[in-house]
Amino acid sequence: MKKKKNRWEDHYTRQARKERYPARSVYKLKEIQQKHGLIKAGDRVLDLGCAPGSWLLFAADLTGKTGQVVGVDQNPVTAPMPSHVRVCTGDVLSPENGLIEAVGKDFNVVLSDMAPATTGIKDVDAARSFNLCEAALNISQACLKQRGSFVCKIFQGEDFNTFLDRIKQLFQKYKIYKPQSSRKASREIYIIGMGKR
Question: Is 153 among the residues known to form the active site?
Answer without folding.
Answer: yes
